[in-house]
Specification:
The complex is a heterodimer. Chain A has a 6-stranded mixed beta sheet, sandwiched between helices. In chain A, strands 11-12-10-13 form a 4-stranded antiparallel beta sheet, with helices on one face. A 3-stranded antiparallel beta sheet of chain A has the order 2-1-4. The longest helix of chain A has 16 residues, at 163-178. By secondary structure, chain A is an alpha/beta fold. In chain A, 46% of the residues are buried. In chain A, 34% of the residues lie in helices and 26% in strands. Chain A has helices spanning 43-50, 74-77, 93-103, 108-117, 133-145, 163-178, 190-193, 214-220, 233-242, 262-271, 286-294, 303-306; strands at 5-14, 17-27, 32-36, 58-63, 78-81, 151-155, 182-187, 199-204, 207-213, 225-229, 246-251, 254-258, 278-282. By secondary structure, chain B is α+β, with helices and mostly antiparallel strands. Chain B has 2 domains: 92-318, Jelly Rolls, CATH 2.60.120; 332-542, no CATH class. Helix content of chain B is 35%, strand content 27%. Chain B has 9 helices and 21 strands. Chain B has helices at 21-34, 37-58, 338-361, 363-370, 374-411, 420-448, 451-470, 476-485, 518-542; strands spanning 64-66, 73-75, 92-121, 139-141, 148-154, 163-169, 174-178, 182-185, 197-204, 207-213, 220-226, 233-241, 245-251, 254-260, 262-277, 282-286, 300-304, 307-312, 315-318, 330-331, 414-415. In chain B, the strands form 4 sheets. Chain B has a 15-stranded antiparallel beta sheet that branches. In chain B, strands 1-2 form a two-stranded antiparallel sheet. A two-stranded antiparallel ribbon of chain B has the order 13-14. Chain B is elongated, with a radius of gyration of 29 Å. The relative contact order of chain B is 0.15. Classes of the chains: A alpha/beta, B alpha+beta. Chains A and B meet through helix 3, helix 4, helix 5 and helix 6 of A and helix 1, helix 3 and helix 4 of B.
């Protein structure tokens, strides 16, 4: 089964607000794809369109090459968790999974399996309404995994999880990808995805800003630079500029080079036989790279950032 | 913690295709329904309310009466009247004054009715009229619409026996009536001395043909009755009878019923019998007893020079609920189902929530992601809510009628008998009505998406019109209109005793009578439900979840 998710040219307007403005990307099997962007960037809307819940004004969304709504056992192709709070509070966790299982032609045995695997045995008979957000997230994950889907899509799964849960979630997502499933995980916090996602789709104002790997994103971030401590500052600057870096001589024995990875800096200096005492890479964090990318797309920026007045933004 | 991983190569339980898509969906929706305890409790409460109210209403009062000689006071079951049963199995009134001869084999009777008059009690007697006094003093002249006098061929003088008759009536012209429930119109108008109404009955074996004529020369056949198993010897002769007279004053907020017994007198001329008759006229009341039956306002007959004046009180026809019902406290089986409409409120709440709760929690997105065919989701929810309600309703209705009928009889209320088929229709139909109403609420829930609004609309559409009707809050016409056009028309399915146009009574829901026939009323409810489902389908498909 083709595990990919393909989104092409989605546009959707809610009244005056353009929620999706040409959203296009592909989620490939075997890797964790992070779906990041500020609140209101269109992540949840895109996910609803993928599930056939919202109809786009334009564009298509395919799961394994077919529209989700045309699938006979859709949860076999794509397991999803959009809102962990979407539960009938008086129904037990087990019965919540049971009706979902029945809808996919599955039985009690499979429900028991996912309950065990999600670590919900002790609470399975309790009303789901009494669950903490973290417990609800686990129940939602169990539901998404119920039909052993080829692809899985989770909207903000880290919300409400304790540190132990976050660690578990990261390992869980990686293992799903390792099994060859396509994994799409949204978050508004890059840090949650830093050590988990292989691919990043950064979105803002309804479209994709960057579709890149984590390493590429870091390299392009303007904050990345390498500092070189050397007695021969002038020679070093010449060599590095020739190698393609932008050089900024800061003190008589220190320069900063940007646009060149640290190993390339070392190779270039060695080749030119320029002596140096220290080469240090200053990586921009993923968070910084992300903020830089999305700074134009944030819908609601606290007024305090622009004005000293601590008033709320009113529009 | 263990990761939720499964081996892709291992097949999952129940895979694949061992259950078709819609079957899976039905099962899922049933699982959803049964796993919310509040909903199951709601339905059980609905059943308990239905049965409980049947028990309570029936447990009200006990009927009192005195024995035949009026010396011993009796109550309850001992007061059950000897209600005659017609050839069709229905309870009938069969009381009239009969001037008769016996006829053996085939024969005929011909008369000219030259005068038809009557008297009734003026203005006294309110509500139940079977206990009204019979003093001659307060009588005023006038005939009721269905006062009648004419000729009759009857199996015997035993009340409830088969008959065929030709008659003049107070307001409905000449009629042929037979075996209590059949009624055919003949010549219009009332007889008078210059313009009499000629009537003729001809017996041939089991068949009796009725004719009328304005001049005694030109005859028209009004109808033919086949009275299966009519004996060789029958009673033939003249009769007069006049049912309870009542007047209804209806206004916003209620109505009052006034009435009392009445008397009809027919004057017969040119009385001719043919066939093997015994030649001697005998007069007497049929179907009157001191403890039950119409009070005697002066029935009897007077013959002189070939002219007969016959006066009688009572009625020949089916007993219906309401003031035209006759002289016995009677009840229909569906009067035990008043609780079904209280239970209905609980049913509507549960059925509405079955859909709206999903919107409230966002669960609808999980449902539609699991089953993207939205029409099927709507259908599955409707079927589950409808069938569960039907099943619970069926049990509640069966128990209500069983408990209520026992209770009624022990009080001395006469429960009008109906055929097994009719009883089955009332029971199954009421359960089906509740089921369809639940489906209506489910569809409304899909359209309106909010519990409070959905429940309000469902109650306004279904419960309120019925309540207005049952409590006579609006005038008769308004009530009848409400029960024709609103989904509450479906309550007609409960009606066990049909509307007989030849019996003057107050045919209104408070008496268990609806403006539409049972299946037509049910069809109106189904049409509303179908419309609501269509709207729900369109909106569910068009709207983002």
């Amino acid at each position: 089964m083709d595990a990919s998710i393909e989104v092409t040219g989605l546009r959707k307007r809610f009244g005056p607000a353009l929620a999706l403005d040409g959203m296009s990307f592909t989620v490939r099997p075997g890797r964790v794809t992070g779906f990041v962007g500020p609140n209101g960037a269109g992540k949840s809307t895109t996910m609803r369109v993928i599930l056939g819940l919202d109809a786009p004004d334009e564009g298509t969304a395919l799961v394994g090459g077919r529209p989700y709504a045309s699938l006979r056992r859709p949860m076999r192709s794509l397991g999803s968790l959009l809102d962990a709070g979407a539960l009938q509070p008086s129904r037990s966790a087990r019965n919540h999974l049971l009706w979902l299982a029945h809808s996919q032609g599955l039985g009690k045995q499979r429900v028991n399996e996912v309950i065990t695997q999600a670590g919900l045995e002790s609470v399975a008979k309790r009303r789901a309404g009494g669950f903490s957000l973290g417990m609800r997230q686990r129940l939602g994950i169990a539901a998404a995994m119920l039909a052993d889907p080829a692809a899985i899509m989770l909207d903000e799964p880290f919300n409400g999880m304790d540190p132990e849960g976050i660690v578990w979630m990261r390992g869980f997502l990686r293992s799903l990808a390792a099994q060859g499933r396509a994994v799409l995980v949204s978050s508004h916090l890059m840090s949650e995805l830093q050590d988990t996602a292989d691919q990043l789709i950064v979105v803002g104002r309804g479209k994709v800003i960057a579709d890149t790997t984590v390493a590429e994103l870091l390299a392009t971030a303007s904050g990345s630079r390498v500092t070189v401590r050397t007695k021969a500052v002038t020679d070093a600057a010449q060599v590095l500029e020739r190698a393609g870096a932008t050089v900024d001589v800061r003190t008589p024995d220190l320069l900063a080079a940007s646009g060149l990875a640290s190993e390339h800096v070392v190779t270039a200096l060695r080749a030119a036989e320029v002596p140096f005492s220290e080469v240090a890479a200053h990586r921009a964090t993923l968070e910084q790279a992300y903020l830089e990318l999305t700074k134009d797309s944030v819908e609601f920026r606290p007024a305090a950032l622009e004005n000293s007045a601590a008033t709320e933004v009113t529009r | 913690m263990t990761a939720i991983l499964t081996d892709h190569s291992a097949g999952l339980v129940g895979e694949p295709g061992n259950r078709d898509g819609f079957g899976r969906l039905l099962r899922a929706e049933w699982t959803k329904f049964r796993t919310v305890r509040g909903w199951m409790i709601g339905l059980i409460v609905a059943a308990i309310l239905t049965v409980g109210l049947a028990w309570l209403t029936a447990a009200g009062s006990t009927i009192g009466c005195s024995n035949g000689s009026g010396t011993v006071q009796l109550t309850g079951r001992a007061c059950l009247p000897p209600v005659p049963i017609g050839p069709g199995g229905e309870a009938v009134n069969d009381s009239f004054y009969f001037v008769r001869q016996s006829l053996t084999g085939n024969g005929s009777i011909t008369v000219a009715v030259t005068s038809f008059t009557g008297r009734h009690i003026a203005g006294n007697g309110v509500g139940r009229v079977h206990a009204v006094g019979t003093g001659q003093g307060g009588l005023v002249s006038g005939t009721g619409p269905w006062s009648k006098a004419g000729i009759i061929i009857k199996q015997s003088t035993k009340p409830g026996s088969a008959y065929a008759a030709m008659m003049v009536t107070g307001s409905h012209g000449v009629r042929m009536q037979y075996d209590y429930v059949s009624d055919i119109a003949g010549l219009p108008g009332r007889p008078s001395s210059p313009a009499p109404r000629w009537l003729r009955l001809v017996r041939e074996g089991d068949t009796i043909a009725g004719y009328d004529s304005a001049d005694g020369i030109h005859w028209a056949r009004v109808g033919t009755a086949t009275l299966a198993g009519l004996s060789r010897v029958v009673q033939v002769g003249l009769f007069a009878t006049s049912p309870q007279d009542f007047r209804v004053q209806s206004s916003f907020g209620g109505q009052s019923v006034q009435g009392g017994p009445s008397l009809a007198t027919g004057v017969f001329d040119h009385v001719r019998l043919s066939g093997a008759v015994n030649g001697t006229w005998t007069g007497g009341n049929v179907g009157s007893s001191p403890s039950a039956g119409p009070p005697d306002l002066g029935s009897g007959f007077h013959a002189s020079a070939g002219t007969f004046a016959v006066s009688g009180s009572g009625d020949i026809g089916p007993i219906v609920p309401g003031p035209g019902g006759g002289w016995y406290p009677t009840a229909a089986i569906e009067q035990n189902l008043a609780g079904a409409f209280i239970g209905l409120i609980a049913i509507l709440v549960v059925a509405a929530m079955f859909f709206t709760a999903e919107y409230r929690r966002g669960l609808i997105r999980i449902t539609l992601a699991a089953s993207p065919r939205r029409g099927q989701v709507l259908a599955a929810k409707a079927i589950v809510a409808g069938l569960v309600t039907f099943a619970v309703g069926l049990v509640a209705v069966i128990v209500s009628i069983a408990v209520g009928v026992r209770q009624m009889r022990s009080q001395g209320l006469y429960v009008l008998p109906v055929s097994a088929l009719t009883e089955a229709r009332v029971i199954v139909g009421t359960a089906a009505m509740l089921g369809v109403m639940a489906v209506f609420a489910v569809a409304l829930g899909a359209v309106l998406r909010r519990s409070a609004i959905t429940i309000t609309v469902a109650i306004v559409a279904i419960v309120l019109p019925f309540l207005f009707a049952a409590l006579n809050i609006f005038p008769y016409d308004v009530t009848n209109w409400l029960l024709r056009v609103t989904p509450a028309a479906g309550f007609a399915i409960e009606q066990s005793i049909p509307h007989y146009s030849q019996v003057n009574s107050l045919y209104q829901p408070a008496n268990g009578s609806y403006p539409l026939p049972p299946l037509a009323g049910f069809a109106v409810l189904c049409a509303w439900t179908a419309a609501a489902l269509m709207l729900a389908l369109i909106l569910l498909r068009r709207r983002d979840a």
